[in-house]
């Protein structure tokens, strides 16, 4: 949806920071001191807040406040939402997603066709795409990208699940890409892999360490070009004037890092940034009455979960880490979840700006949304939790503490993001609820949770992924194939889960082209993940974000009805954004409305009887 701004009045691994949101009294008081009503602001502050973000040279700059660090500017390594979103802006994928409803539409490929047995896919590569250094982008670049991922495990770190089933990839001519499969693959119209320029990347040596962050501008063929980057400061991008769909209208796009969410909101009020995501409910409510600021509150594509350490392990059969052995007992995990009140979390922490968690896929993706039956559901029931712990041999001692047969008290640790108020607030609730059961909980809030997580040095952790229309990726991270090769390696796994029943279901859905049958298999996977008790989805938070209407005249949400702006499946928001100064002769070449040639691609897919897969990660979020 292209939202016209009205007058003042919507995933390796730095582990998963979600949308920050907490509504404690302390936060409200802090916010009250931070967000000054416009009527009380000093005249000079008011003037600054109303001034569009324009550079000294008169250029229109769109500045996006972000709270996530860049993991890598290499598309072969990046998994965080911020970085994969930036890669969507700077590299073309074979296909894209219609911002209106998420249908697969042309990207680097203008059309595609499977063979009768669906084991060979032929893509027609567009003739009007060029790399930002002036060289023509061709099918050879796509073939090289996929072949590199197939041949080098380090190049498959981020997106290897997409190419694991590829038998051969060739480019018989500049306009034709041919992918031959080992067996059918349902994601062939949802291959979310950035296509890179062969003439640049073939010079790279070690793909496990090359972060692509030393030489600028970075060559790409998307709507933007990365021009500069400073760790935990900013990423700067310029419009690609030769982008085939048309150049963006802003003269510069900047992702500016803020460790503190209140500081980002203050910057929005002062006009120092154009857009802020990850608002707390208190911040969003206060900003709704602020002049020249529009708040977008949309159903989210993320889940917020509690993850338990199932015993960190690698493909070579070795175990590692120091996860609590009690959590290997399904009864203990189930007891913890029975002692977790999701309703209170939604009402008190998210203040109603979320939906209570159930299955692994958020309700926004209605086709794949699953919920447990009444008999299967692990609802809030402290008495049941106590009974399960008693039966498992963890009874209360004289001091009221649960202890095992060895006499040691049942104490757990939970990894918490230091900058995420959600983690901290929910951690306090868990300490209270589990404490009443006689269980101790230490909330370990760290700036970097990646290191202990990858090392398996945790008991529980706050987890979350942004989910895309096709769920393949967020399902693949729980397969045995996603485990690290050895304890020293980094795998694609989310939480070291390796379950044969889950794996069998994953393999079946991956080759199922019938949409209804695949949907049922995905729901069975969600049911299995729920029953194992390694993941407890607590909530599906709304996307709470805001932008300045005196800087951004219009911007596209995805989906069209009640969609988000930040972290889309595509480049639509920032590519379509129109400066408030557009009438003053701002540069750029795209129209505000988005015109997409969907007819040919949709017709081809329908004629072939192919299930049009609609994709994975937040791009992934990412996980973040």
TrEMBL record:
Residues 1-41 form the signal peptide. Keywords: Membrane, Signal, Transmembrane, Transmembrane helix, Transport. GO terms for biological process: peptide transport. Residues 105-476 form the Solute-binding protein family domain. GO terms for cellular component: ATP-binding cassette (ABC) transporter complex; cell envelope; periplasmic space. It is found in: Cell envelope. The keyword NAD does not apply. GO terms for molecular function: peptide transmembrane transporter activity. The chain crosses the membrane at residues 594-614. SUPFAM superfamilies: Periplasmic binding protein-like II. Belongs to the bacterial solute-binding protein 5 family. This is ABC transporter substrate-binding protein. It comes from Streptomyces genisteinicus.
């Amino acid at each position: 949806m292209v939202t016209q701004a009205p007058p003042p009045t919507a995933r390796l691994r730095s582990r998963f920071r979600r949308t920050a949101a907490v509504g404690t009294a302390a936060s409200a008081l802090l916010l009250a001191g931070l967000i000054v009503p416009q009527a009380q602001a000093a005249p000079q502050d008011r003037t600054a807040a109303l001034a569009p973000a324009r550079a000294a040279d008169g250029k229109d700059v769109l500045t996006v406040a972000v709270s996530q660090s860049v993991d890598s500017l290499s598309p072969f390594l990046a998994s965080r939402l911020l970085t994969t979103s930036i890669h969507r802006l700077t590299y073309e994928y074979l296909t894209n997603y219609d911002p209106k409803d998420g249908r697969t539409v042309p990207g680097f490929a203008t059309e595609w066709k499977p063979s009768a047995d669906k084991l060979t896919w032929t893509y027609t590569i567009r003739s009007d795409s060029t790399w930002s250094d002036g060289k023509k982008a061709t099918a050879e670049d796509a073939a090289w990208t996929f072949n590199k991922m197939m041949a080098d495990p380090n190049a498959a770190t981020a997106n290897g699940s997409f190419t694991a089933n590829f038998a051969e990839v060739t480019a018989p001519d500049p306009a034709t890409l041919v992918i031959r499969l080992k067996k059918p693959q349902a994601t062939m119209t949802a291959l979310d892999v950035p296509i890179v320029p062969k003439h640049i990347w073939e010079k790279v040596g070690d793909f496990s360490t090359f972060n692509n962050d030393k030489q600028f501008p970075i060559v790409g063929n998307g709507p933007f070009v990365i021009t500069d980057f400073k760790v935990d400061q900013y990423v700067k991008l310029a419009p690609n004037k030769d982008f085939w769909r048309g150049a963006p209208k802003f003269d510069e796009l900047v992702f500016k890092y803020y460790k503190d969410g209140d500081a980002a909101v203050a910057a929005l009020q002062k006009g120092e940034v154009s857009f802020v995501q990850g608002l707390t409910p208190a911040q969003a409510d206060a900003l709704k009455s602020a002049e020249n600021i529009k708040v977008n509150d949309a159903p989210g594509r993320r889940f917020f979960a509690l993850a338990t350490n199932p015993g960190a392990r690698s493909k070579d059969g070795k175990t590692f880490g120091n996860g609590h052995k009690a959590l290997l007992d399904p009864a203990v995990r189930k007891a913890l979840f029975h002692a977790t009140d999701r309703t209170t979390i939604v009402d008190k922490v998210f203040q109603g700006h979320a939906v209570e968690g159930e299955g692994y896929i958020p309700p926004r993706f209605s086709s794949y949304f699953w919920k447990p039956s009444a008999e299967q559901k692990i609802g809030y029931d402290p008495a049941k939790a106590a009974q399960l712990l008693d039966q498992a041999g963890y009874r209360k001692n004289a001091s009221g503490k649960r202890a095992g047969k060895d006499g040691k008290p049942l104490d757990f640790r939970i990894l918490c993001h230091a900058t995420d108020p959600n983690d901290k607030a929910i951690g306090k609730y868990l300490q209270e609820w589990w404490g009443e059961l006689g269980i101790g909980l230490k909330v370990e809030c760290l700036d970097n949770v990646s290191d202990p997580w990858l090392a398996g040095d945790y008991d529980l952790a706050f987890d979350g992924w942004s989910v895309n229309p096709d769920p393949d990726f967020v399902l693949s991270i729980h397969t045995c194939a996603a485990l690290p090769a050895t304890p020293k390696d980094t795998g694609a796994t989310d939480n070291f889960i390796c379950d044969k029943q889950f794996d069998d279901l994953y393999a079946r859905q991956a080759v199922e082209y019938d949409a209804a049958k695949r949907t049922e298999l995905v729901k069975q996977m969600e049911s299995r993940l729920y029953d194992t008790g390694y993941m407890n989805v607590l909530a599906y938070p709304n996307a709470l974000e805001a932008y300045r209407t005196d800087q951004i005249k219009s911007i596209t949400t995805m989906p069209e009805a009640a969609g988000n702006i930040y972290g889309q499946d595509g480049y639509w928001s920032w590519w379509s954004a129109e400066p408030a100064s557009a009438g003053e002769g701002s540069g750029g070449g795209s129209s505000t409305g988005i015109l997409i040639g969907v007819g040919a691609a949709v017709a081809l897919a329908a004629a072939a009887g192919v299930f049009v897969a609609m994709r994975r990660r937040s791009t992934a979020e990412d996980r973040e």
